[in-house]
Amino acid sequence: MAPLLVTSTFLPLVEAQAKARRVSPRLIVVPHPVGGLNEGELAAKIETAAAELLTLADEARGAE
User: Fold this and answer.
1) Contact 34/5 with Cβ under 8 angstroms?
2) Is the pLDDT of residue 1 over 80?
3) What per-residue confidence (pLDDT) applies to 63?
4) What range does the domain containing 39 cover?
5) DSSP letters of 1-64?
6) From CA 39, how far away is CA 55, in angstroms rounded?
7) Is 48 exposed, middle or buried (0-12, 13-18, 19+ CB in 10 A)?
8) Residue 30's beta-bridge partner residues?
9) Overall number of domains in the chain
10) Which of 1, 9, 48, 60 could tie 32 with a disulfide, CB 3.0–4.6 Å?
11) How confident is the model over 10-64, as pLDDT tens digits?
């Protein structure tokens, strides 16, 4: 299953839906909100999410 990007505000909803559907999604959680941010703020969130995505990719292929 591909990783799912979610903001912190919506994390409880995502977790509840995953539990109801009996799935365990790989999640990348970023602080809420992502809308209305200036360029620097958005870039920081993108960098954080990208780093987490790379970590998940390494784990998926067995790298440490």
Assistant:
1) no
2) no
3) 67
4) 4-60
5) ---EEEEGGGHHHHHHHHHHTT----EEEEPSP-TT--HHHHHHHHHHHHHHHHHHHHHHTT--
6) 24
7) middle
8) 7
9) 1
10) 9
11) 999 999 999 999 999 999 999 999 999 999 999 999 999 999 999 999 988 886 5
